[in-house]
Amino acid sequence: MREPVRRAWPPRLPEQPIFYPVLDEDYAIRIARDRNVRHDGAGFVTRFEVDTGFLSRYPVRRAGGETILELWLPAEELDESNALVVGRIEVVHAFR
Question: How many domains does the chain have?
Answer without folding.
Answer: 1
